[in-house]
Amino acid sequence: MRCLKVPEDRRRIFAFPYPVAIWRDPPRSVELAVDVARDFGATRIYTVGDVVTANFLAAGLVPDAAAVDLKTRRSEYVRTVEAFPRIVSVRNPPGYITEEAWAAVEDAVRTPGTLLLVEGEEDMLSLAFIALAPDDSAVVYGHYRGALIVIPVGRYKEIRGLLKYMEPC
User: Fold this and answer.
1) 3-state secondary structure the chain
2) What pLDDT shows up at residue 144?
3) What are the angstrom distances between the C-alpha of 100 and each of 11, 31, 108, 124, 142?
């Protein structure tokens, strides 16, 4: 895949809580996310974000792969590295999905137990996971207003269409 970036005038499109938003605190939010994913036939779950991944781990659930930047709201550190047998470092600036990040997500989807340790920002990698994950997967990430977002990939393939709103780098 090629490098893509979110134009400033389109940022609000990517802030919408697509399609299942869970407005509960952990651990209940994690339980509900897993229930939603399973109801849609997901056998794999990919998490994006430090807090989401940490909440899954605290609930005793290790995602098939995850992407974190070890920063919560850009300042607090969250330790999740120990839970994953394989760690891949990748650079990805805010608002981008670099070629390096595409390749890392593709590799993580193929190799369960992979943690992508992102230098920069991991937020947009949720879209890369949605684009590259098999249909029997769910991608879970946090919304900036506090919801847990669950994307059952096979059921909501049209979300991949958000890529057309991004520009080449």
Assistant:
1) CCCEECCHHHHHHHCCCCCEEECCCCCHHHHHHHHHHHHCCCCEEEEECHHHHHHHHHCCCCCCEEEECCCECCCECCCCHHHCCEEEEEEECCCEECHHHHHHHHHHHHCCCEEEEEEECCCCHHHHHHHHCCCCEEEEEECCCCCEEEEECCCCHHHHHHHHHCEEC
2) 83
3) 22, 32, 12, 13, 23
Q: How many CB atoms lie within 10 A of CB 151?
A: 26
Average pLDDT for runs of 10 along the chain of length 169: 83 71 96 96 97 94 96 62 94 95 98 97 94 97 91 82 75
Q: Which of 88, 114, 82, 86 is nearest to 101 (CA)?
A: 88
Question: Whole-prediction pTM value?
Answer: 0.87
C-alpha span between 109 and 107 (Å, rounded): 5
CB atoms within 10 A of CB 74: 8
Buried b / exposed e over 112-132, threshold 16 CB at 10 Å, is eebbbbbebbbbbbbbbbbbb
Q: Which residue ranges make up each domain of the chain?
A: 19-147
- The reported pLDDT for the residue numbered 75 is 47
